[in-house]
């Protein structure tokens, strides 16, 4: 399966279920909750969803509204330690389980999130 086929397989609905399941856990998370500005969680949810749609073969709304992703630069102001990365991955893996996506899509997204989150670590412990 090509990464670009994922949107055709799970559609907007698949991404919406995944990202909603992820963000539902954020406000009460002791590690990540404080990093996200709680007043705009629905905006954050929309930005991550749009980014993933664009990255995996769906509409390019993210590029039109936010421009080139440059994720490391956009995360520079958040203290991402390896502990924060591990927690982000833990919540996302739980969201992946909850979203019940086809197994090949599940595995492809899981490995994409793991490597991207590692790449975003920007603070020593
Ligand atoms: C490693 C742990 C991570 C932490 C602690 C973290 C934290 C954050 C925070 C606090 C924001 C600001 C929320 C907002 O947009 O209002 C954000 C934005 C964002 N994050 Fe992360 N993030 C992490 C990993 C990731 C990963 C793995 C991805 C992609 C797979 C990602 C993609 C994004 C995107 C697309 C935005 C919105 C950027 C924009 O358009 O402004 N993040 N992140």
Structure description:
The protein is mainly alpha-helical and 125 residues long. It has one domain (3-119): Globin-like. The chain is 62% helix and 0% strand. It has 6 helices and no strands. It has helices at 6-23, 41-55, 61-66, 71-74, 82-99, 103-119. The longest helix has 18 residues, at 6-23. The structure holds protoporphyrin IX containing FE (HEM). Protoporphyrin IX containing FE (HEM) binds at residues 32, 35-36, 40, 43-44, 47-48, 51, 66, 71, 74-75, 78, 80, 84-85, 88, 113, 116-117, 120.
User: According to CATH, what is the topology?
Assistant: Globin-like
- Tell me the major beta sheet: none
Outline type: globular
* Protein structure class: mainly alpha
CA-atom Rg in angstroms: 14 Å
Which strand-content bin applies to the residues?
Answer: under 5%
Task: Assign a percent range to the helix content.
Answer: 55-70%
Whole-number mean pLDDT: 96
Looking at the overall shape, the CATH architecture is Orthogonal Bundle
Number of helices: 6
Name the poorly predicted regions: none
Q: CA-to-CA gap between the ends?
A: 37 Å
Task: Count structural domains.
Answer: 1
């Amino acid at each position: 399966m090509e990464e670009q086929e994922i949107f055709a397989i799970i559609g907007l609905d698949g991404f919406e279920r995944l990202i909603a399941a992820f963000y539902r856990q954020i406000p009460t998370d002791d590690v990540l909750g404080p990093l996200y500005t709680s007043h705009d969680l629905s905006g954050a949810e929309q930005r991550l969803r749009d980014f993933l749609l664009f990255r995996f073969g769906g509409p390019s709304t993210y590029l039109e509204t936010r421009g080139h992703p440059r994720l490391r630069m956009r995360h520079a102001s958040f203290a991402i330690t390896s502990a924060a990365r591990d927690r982000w991955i833990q919540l996302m893996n739980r969201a992946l389980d909850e979203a019940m996506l086809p197994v090949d899509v599940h595995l492809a997204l899981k490995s994409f999130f793991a490597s991207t989150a590692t790449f975003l670590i920007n603070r020593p412990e």
